[in-house]
Write a structure and sequence with these properties.
InterPro entries: ADH-like_N, ER, GroES-like_sf, NAD(P)-bd_dom_sf, Trans-enoyl_RdTase-like. This protein folds into two domains: 203 residues, Quinone Oxidoreductase, Chain A, domain 1 (Alpha-Beta Complex); 154 residues, Rossmann fold (3-Layer(aba) Sandwich), CATH 3.40.50. Helices cover 21% and strands 23% of the residues.
């Protein structure tokens, strides 16, 4: 099969490799569409392991073969999922290929009205958002949560999602809107984003959205909300976390951050605690990652299983759709061979603030800056 594999020179190339065989409780997926995430170019340019690793995380396709003990899937079923790929020093499988392996209970059923392209935008970023909201921040989940906190303090139901037009931010809005406080109240969602995305976010159910480039946005958020109780920093760079901390209620709280070290600790309020976790913990395997080791966590894996069941069941009002809206798709031309030369250039390999400016970008229409959408490729039609 063809696969995008890390190569000498901190790059990746499409080459031939063996089709993997599903082991017990695994399924072989023929990949139709794949979705890009910033970690894909990041760990290609800054490899965690020697060359030879299949890159990529988000995939959607059909079940091609079933391993021993699998009773929940049949050949031909439409599924989505995510893999760790080249982000770990220890071996973990990747997804940017013609075929990939998923563990049977970590595959998501794609409802009838959802396309492969839409499904490929969901797995990794929706789980990142779910872990942030329902594990780290501790709000009530709309599905059975094995990591639910037994007691919660009574706090105003005010959530701030910083950089809400990112994939994680858009999916966090969807999940927060489907949740309620222990008292049954809906969460009030506040957001920051580029002005061009404000109307989209308001239509998605955000109560108020603020321009993150404004000097006064933290004060404006505090004034509009009466103080934030929960926050998700979808960028976690430079002073973003510190500014978010200034919006909190007097008793402080927790900010879920998506990066471990790219944000400045200086300026973060003493009573506000930023908490990071690796989405890969949800796969339930030990990870050698970012210079350290994260042990396998059966409880975090159990959370993923329940969350993916929630997605697989579809919306209560329309089971042919996901219970949350997929990310808008930018379908990129070409296939595996175009990922490095196009998508990796668009996403960059560093901080979001260092991505190419309009003046530096290429002229092709599919190479415009990414905002409020997910880059998706076809692999097999």
């Amino acid at each position: 099969m063809k696969a995008l594999i890390t190569a000498p020179g901190n790059t990746a190339i499409v080459t031939d490799t063996d089709v993997p065989e599903p082991a017990t409780n695994e399924i072989l997926v023929q990949i139709h569409s794949l979705g890009l995430n910033p970690i894909d170019p990041l760990y290609t340019a800054h490899p965690a392991a020697p060359p030879g690793r299949v890159v990529g995380s988000d995939i959607a396709g059909t079940v091609k073969k079933i391993g021993e003990g699998v009773t929940s899937w049949r050949v031909g079923d439409r599924v989505a999922g995510f893999l760790q790929g080249a982000t770990s020093a220890n071996y973990r499988p990747g997804g940017f290929a013609e075929f990939a392996i998923l563990e049977a209970d970590l595959a998501i059923h794609i409802p009838d009205s959802v396309t492969f392209e839409q499904a490929a935008t969901v797995p990794l970023c929706s789980l990142t958002a779910a872990q942030a909201l329902f594990i780290r921040l501790g709000i009530d989940a709309p599905f059975p949560n094995p990591l639910k906190r037994e007691e919660q303090l009574a706090r105003p139901p005010n959530i701030l999602i910083y950089s809400a037009s990112t994939s994680v931010g858009l999916l966090a809005i969807e999940l927060a809107r489907s949740s309620h406080t222990p008292a049954g109240l809906p969460y009030r969602i506040f957001a920051t984003a580029n002005i061009k995305n404000h109307a989209k976010l308001l239509a998605a159910g955000v109560e108020a959205v603020f321009d993150y480039r404004s000097e006064t946005w933290p004060e404006d958020v505090s004034r509009a909300s009466g103080g934030i109780s929960y926050a998700l920093d979808c960028i976690s760079e430079e002073d973003s976390t510190a500014k978010i901390s200034q919006t909190f209620i007097k008793s402080g709280g927790i900010i879920a951050v998506v990066r471990k070290t790219a944000w400045h600790k200086d300026g973060v309020r003493d009573d506000v605690t930023p908490i990071y976790s690796a989405v890969w913990s949800g796969l339930g395997h030990e990870i050698t990652y970012n210079g350290g080791s994260i042990p396998a966590s059966p409880s975090w894996r159990a959370f993923t299983v329940e969350f993916f069941r929630f997605l697989s069941a579809g919306s209560t009002s329309n089971p042919s759709r996901f219970p949350i809206k997929p990310i808008p798709v930018r379908l990129m031309p070409g296939g595996l061979e175009s990922i490095v030369q196009d998508a990796f250039v668009l996403l960059g390999v560093g901080k979001v603030i260092n991505r190419s400016t309009d003046e530096e970008r290429r002229s092709e229409p599919w190479m415009k800056p990414v905002s409020g959408e997910k880059l998706v490729y076809h692999v097999y039609d």
